[in-house]
Structure formats: structure tokens, C-alpha cells
Amino acid sequence: QLCYEPSVVAYTILLRAYGNASKIELAEEAFLEMLEAGVEPDAVACGTLLCVYARRGRHGDMMLFYAATRRRGVAPPVSAFNFMLSSLQKHRLHGKVIHLWKHMMEMEEANNVVPNHFTYTVVIGSFVKAGLLEEAMDVLGKMRASRLVPEEATYSCLISLSSRHGRGEQVVMLYEEMRAHGIVPSNYTCASLLALYDKSEDYSKALSLFSEMERSRVVIDEVIYGILIRIYGKIGLYDDAQRTFEEIVSAGLLSDEQTYVAMAQVHMNARNYDKALQVLGLMRSRNVKPSKFSYGALLRCHVAREDIAAAEDVFRALCKYGLPDVFCCNDLLRLYVKLGQLEKASAFILKMRKEDIQLDEALCMTVMEVCCKSGMITDADKILKEMNNGGVTMKSSTMVSIIEMYARNRTSVMQEQDSSSKALACQTDSSALNATLKSLLDTPGGSSIACQLIRKLAREGRTCEAKFLHEQLTQLGVKPEDSATSTLIVQYGQEQKLHQAEELFESASTSFPIRGPVYNAMVDALCKCGNIGEAYHLFMKMADQGHSRDVVTISILVTHLTKHGKFQEVENIMHGCFHGEVELDTVAYNTFIKSMLESGKLYSAVNIYDRMISTGVPRSLQTFNIMISVYGLGGKLDKAAEMFAAAQELGLLIDEKIYTNMLNFYGKAGRHQEASSLFDRMKELGIMPGKISCNSMINAYATARLHDEAEIVFQEMQSHGQVPDSTTYLALIRSYSESRCYSKAEKAIQMMLTSGITPSCPHFSHLIFAFLKADQIDEAQRICSQMQEIGVAVDLACCRAMMRAYLEHGRVDEGISLFETTRGSLKPDSFILSAAFHLYEHSGSEPEAGDVLEAIGLHGASFLRSLKVGSKLEPT
After folding, report:
1. Which domain holds residue 5?
2. Which of 52, 156, 186, 673 could, after both became Cys, cross-link 19 (CB 3.0–4.6 A)?
């Protein structure tokens, strides 16, 4: 025999042979024999035995042997690690896979154990199965660094887990990376992406992905079709959803309960409840076993149809599967509430409590609503207490809704009940409300949330509820935010409830120190209720005490003071703001300038405007419009034109109002050419002139005696659908009268009457004055008679003009007749009384002349001795 010296290679071959033959015991004996023979096992030998254990699922022995090899400082090869990892993963021992992976990382550098593609694939899979997304992504990062491209399945599981964790951007990144490697996604991957897009409501991307799937010939299964149907329904493409559903039926893919429910839900979204019932009926006819899922959809459908009997039948069927979930309970309970079945609703609540159904927030809200409507406040208190004791944490929004219901219920009870039962009702409600309020106040930002509710109720006009909550907060020692108090005060002012506003203001000042916002609100309320004097004094008191002066309040107060002609008070406020360095905004400056304009202090208006510019406050279109009026009234049309040009240079959108203002001043100044040019430019820029603009332009032509141009504007106005009003006709009549087109002026008056507009005295006066100016007294008298025939009284200016004509032309009887018919309707006038005296005296009617003279003295009028009858008949 030859001399044989044992070697590790021979034993390794023997170990592999035993392993392939599933002779684990012989493999173990061979390994021990190797050790007894003094042969030191190397990494390959150890790895071979580890693979034997892994192949046969002997994980306990495998891990013990692995621990022994580590103690001997032997690092198995990567292939052995891969066997071990794969075996552990097949038996769902993902924790041990992760544990083994960490060992590999520890010995990677020292022992040159480098993971390969298979290693990364297995380890990522186990991290995903364990729900450890960040760790899985870290392994993916290492795989990328090794320049290894993951398989589709690896990408797919990472996409699925990222989607479940709500990592939308990461999902998209993984998908795009996969596509960049030229990997065609599986239908499972596409389903994960579609589900994510559906959840995030990114429907355009979902539809784009579906189109891409069709181009890549990805097999579309029922799950994907179901998601697609759901998406079509959500974006209102009901026909596409129906078509897709029919395609599934035709392809024989329809078998999943969720697909039927998805299509039924689409019909419900479109309010086609009968079709929804047909789809669910089709499911039953095909022997698809219903579950709570489909019964829930059926219940929602009957609830939407307001079919109580059918909904109750479905609910009973649901109960056979155990306790229905809170969503189904809430659906049925809300149906009872909607249809006013409060007795059934109350009984249902008692049944839920008996069966110990745990309420969630939504169901709790519905239960509270029923309890409040049914007067079951005690039950509501118990339910809230049980929820708190049961550790159910309510969101702030839920507590706010409950508080709002309690407040509404309390105010309605207080309005409906007699005085003997009001106290008890108020006490019960207050205790329940206080408990909930305290819970809300214990949450971060709870006080601010409660004040938000007060502001909301106040703005909605529910001032009784807002006041009640305001009082509850105060009683709990919590100072309501100034914004809550001020909003309620402002609302009282809006509703003309000054007494309530004053009560709240006094109450707030008694409980806590009042600050600027509450003062400002009270000033606003006083203004809205017409107490301008009190508003002014309160504002000045607030300023003296050093409180901040709100620019909005300043604008409101100044506007009201201006309307009531209290210009000195406006100047006091204005100087106080300037000296107190109050930061005024554009609106405040505009209000100050407009007040000075109304008071006739045009120089002050200009000074305020200059101050506005120097302080850097931006000018608005309203600023320029007011300044155009300031300069226009001051006769500085060139300055007004500069304001108009400056507004354009700032890029402000010039509107019809500012054009009309310029047209008006150009017209009054007789500068009809500039007015006409501006009117044409306005039309060129696409600004259709309105009625006021056209009236201003007609007046401009009237001043220039250009009646033809005025008539053209009038006709254009009608052709564009503008209905002329009284002011339009007045301008047109003026243009005809100024141009001595008397017949056209009379026709314009007839047009007014035909279109149902009753002329006033000024409409006739222009024509009368024109006739008198031409010494056509009979024509003027005729027009005057027409005016009186249709019931239009002669005004003072017209009467003066006619009296002067009668007096100067010696038409005594007609003058006396006019005086006697108008003296009772017109206020005493020096000229008319003096003219009447001279006419009476000239006709020899001394007693009547004496009466007129006495009337002149009685009314304190001036007697004009220089008047002379027939002055224009005397030869010059």
C-alpha cells in the first residue's frame, strides 16, 4: 500500500458527496475525522458543511456550526453565505437573514467576503419582508455602488414597500431607475404604482402609466383593471370605467369581489344607485362569495338611496359576520338622522352601546348629533366620558365639532324653552361643554382653536353661539384672543346690535386688559351703527392711551366722518397719525385725500399726496383717480393729465372709472378734442364705454355745441346695448339746446316719455333757457306748459328765468299768473318776490303788491328796487 496523508481537499470532496446524497450524519462524521486527523478545515470545507445544513433546512445546526467557524476565525465563502441566506429566507426567517447579513458586513473588508448579485437580492427581499424600508434602501445603495443591476422583482418589492410607507417620490425614482436599465415592469410593480397614484390622486400619471403598460405589453390582470376602474370613477370618466368593466367581463377575468365593488362605487359616485345595485347583484349571481367588504358597499348604496328597510336588511346580514365596523354603523346612523328618524337613531345608539361597539371619531360625532337633537345630553356626556376613559384620543377638529353642536343645542333650547326650564338646560349643557372645552384647552394650541371657532361662528352670523363660547372661555379663566372678541364685536355692529357690542366690550374690559384690536373693533361697530361721535371719541381715547391704531379702522372712521361732514375731526385724526408715526397704507392715504377733496381743501389733499410719495407708500389706481378729481376741481387739468399718465407709467390697469373722470373734467373745461381723443383711445384698448362714460362724452360735446357728435355717441351707445337713462337724455337735450336744435331737443324729451322715463325739470329747463336766450318767450311758455301737463313741477331756476323774461318784456299778466301758481311750491326768493311786486304795482294791484312787500320783509329777503317792467321794450 501507498502511504496516504489526509488533506482538506479530499475531506471537502467527501463532505460535498455526502451532502448531495443527503447523508448529513456521515458528513458530520467525516468532518470530525478530519479534525482528529489533525487536518485544519479551511473556508471551503466549512462552507461545504454549512451548505449541507442549509440545503436540508437544518438551521439550528447550521447556525451553531457557523458560530464555531467564526470562533476559529474562518470566514465562509460568499457562495456558502448565499446558501445560508437563501435557506433562511425560504423558511421566512428574515430576522436571521438580517443577522447573518450584518456578520457579512463586519467581515467584508477583513476576509474579502464580497456580496454578489444573489446576496443583495436575498437580503433586500428579507428587509422588505420585515418592513424595514430604510435598511432595504441602504442595501440597494451598496448594490448600486458595486455596479450591480437589481432584478425586476427586487425593484418591485422596494416599490411596493415604499408605496405602503407613502414615499411617493422614492417610488417614482425607483421606477424610473428600473426603466433606465431597460427592465420591463411586471404587472405587480405596475399595480403598486397605480395604487400609489390613486391614493395620492395623481390620476394623470396613473393613466400615463397604463398607456405605457399597453405599449410595453405588460399583462394587465384583474387587480390593475380594478384600480383603473376606481381611478376612472374618481375623475368622472364613468363611461370609460363601464367600458373597462365590460372588457374584464368579456375577457373572463372577472372573479374578484373587489372589482365588482369598485365598479359599484363608480356608479354610486355618479349617483346611479340602481346600476350599482345591478353590479352587486351580478356578483351574487356569479356565486362570488360576499364578504363584509361588499356588504359595506351595498349598505352605502341603500343609504344613498335613502332606503331604510333595505339598509336595515343589509346591516342585519353584516351582523352575521360579527360586529359591523364603525363605518357601517355611522352610515346607517347618518341615514336615520337625515330622514329625521330620531327614535330609531336613539335605539340604534343604545344597541351599539349594549354590544360594546368602540366608537371612532366620525361615529362619535354622529352619536353626539343625535343626542343633541334628541335631548339626550346625559347620554352624550356618558359617551364622551367612556371614550375618554377608554383612551380614545379625539382630534382637535372633532372636539371643536362637538363643542359647536353643544353650543347650537344650548342656544336653540334657550330660545324655545320657557324660563323655568332654561336654567336647568343651560346648566346641563354648560357642564358638558366645559368638559369638552377643558379637553380641547389641554391640547397644544387648544385655546387658539377655540377662538377660531368663536370667529367662525361670529362671521357666520351665529352670534349667540359665539357669545356663549366666549363666556365659557372667560369663566374657565382663559382670556379669549383679541381677534375672537373683536370679530364678535364687529359682527354685532354689522347686525346693528350696538347694545350687545357695548356689553361685550364692557365685559371684556372688566375681565382682562383691553388692547388695540378690541378698541378698533368697537370703533368699527359704532360707525356701522351710526354713532360717529362716540366712535371718534373712543378712537381718540384709544390713541391717548397708546394703543395701536389699525389702518383699516382709521379708514372706516374717516370715511364715516367724511360722509357726515365732520372734517375737523378727520384733520385731528390725520395729524395724530402723522405725528404718532402710524404706518398708514394706501387705503388710509386715499381716504384722507378723499376727505380733503370733499371738504374743498384741495391744497391739503395735494400735501397728503406728496407725503404719501415721500414715505414710499404705493399708489393705487384709486389714488390717481382721486388726485385727478382734486386737480380737476382746482382747474389744473394739466396736473390731472399728469396723474393719468403717471398711473399708466406705473403699469396700473386703467379702468373705465378713471377714463370717465378725465372725460368729465375735459368736458366741463370745454376741451372736447382731448376728451374725444381719450374716448377713442379707451375703445382702442378694448374698454367698452359704459353709460357714465358716454354721458360724460355727450356732455363734453354739448358744452362745445357739437350736437352731431353728441348724437353719434348716443347712437353708438344704443347699438352696443347700453340703455340710455335720465342723465343720458339730459346731456343729449343740453347738446341740442346749446346748438339751437330745438325740435331735436323736444324729440329727445318725447323719446324719454316713450321709453318710460319721466323727465324732470332740468330736462325741460335746458330747452326753456335756450328759447328765452333767443327771446322766443312763447315757445318757452309752451314747453313750460307741457312740463306742467305731465306733472313736472317748475323749479326755482326755471321760474326765475321765466319771471325775468315776463318782467323785461312787459308781459305783466303772464308774470303774475306764474307767480301765483308757483308761490306755494317754491321757497321764497328775492328776485321772484321783487319781480312780482313790480308786476303788481305796474298793473295797479296795490294791495297785492303790498302783500308781496310784506312777504319780502317776513322772509328776510332782499328787495330789488332796480328791476323795471318792460326794460327790454324801451328803445336803446
Report:
1. 1-148
2. 52
